[in-house]
Specification:
Length: 63
């Protein structure tokens, strides 16, 4: 099982959000559940290279 943090807010009637690792790619839903489903679909598209020029965030460890 994979976990990923996301950020969301409610704007009038829509829940809008993005995956914290990919803040340039927002999605929305009429409910929080629909937003979460759309975020999962977005992650599938990102990981399958459906979306070009993805900016990725990683951690760099220094000794």
């Amino acid at each position: 099982m994979k976990t990923m943090r996301y950020t969301y807010w409610k704007d009038d009637k829509y829940y809008i959000g993005y995956l914290n690792d990919y803040p340039d790619y927002h999605t929305q839903g009429l409910s929080k559940k629909e937003l979460i489903d759309n975020l999962k679909e977005l992650l599938k598209d990102i990981e399958s290279d459906e979306i070009p020029y993805i900016r990725k965030v990683e951690e760099l460890v220094f000794a």
